[in-house]
Specification:
This protein is mainly alpha-helical. The chain has one domain. It has 6 helices and 3 strands. Strands 1-2-3 form a 3-stranded antiparallel beta sheet. The termini are far apart.
């Protein structure tokens, strides 16, 4: 994300195509963009090639930029990589999408070299559905916190009255 360029993003198609030379595995990666993401990207100023420029002219955000944001938010319980982990956990625990679609969305390679040799597609249509479901999940307001109440099993005894 830090190195994303405007040339890689097709707002009309709702797609970000990361070239292979910027990916760990050296293979192009297509990322479907949600409607909200497209809306936010359209509002960003276009000053140079980078979508998210760093403080220095013509430079990408540093790898510590997002960590610094979390620190300013006083969120030491969150890591930048944790966002990817959260998506992975949501896929596994809260969705019905096949594991390979979730792994592909994260640009993970298949551990089985034989399966990887036969898997040549990029599952784009399924990834579009997955990313829409993820965007819908992220857009939901946080559940209201309910205050638990404890109801005593026995009622309070009335204070005994002295007899006259």
């Amino acid at each position: 994300m830090r190195g994303a360029t405007w040339a890689e993003i097709d707002l009309d198609a709702g797609l970000w195509v990361v070239p292979g030379e910027r990916m760990k595995m050296g293979k192009e990666h297509r990322v479907p963009l949600s409607k909200l993401t497209i809306s936010l990207l359209k509002k960003l100023p276009r000053e140079g090639d980078l979508v998210f420029p760093g403080a220095r002219e013509n430079s990408a955000l540093s790898d510590m930029s997002l960590t610094a944001v979390l620190r300013r938010m006083k969120r030491s319980d969150i890591t930048v990589h944790g966002f990817r982990s959260t998506f992975h956990d949501w896929c596994a625990e809260s969705s019905n999408f096949p594991r390979e679609v979730c792994e592909h969305a994260l640009a993970h390679s298949l551990p089985d070299k034989v399966e990887a040799a036969y898997r040549r597609g990029d599952l784009l249509d399924k990834c579009i559905q997955l990313m829409k479901a993820w965007a819908d999940y992220c857009a939901k307001p946080a559940a209201e916190t309910t205050v638990a109440t404890v109801t005593p099993i026995r009622s309070k005894r009335k204070a005994s009255r002295p007899t006259a």
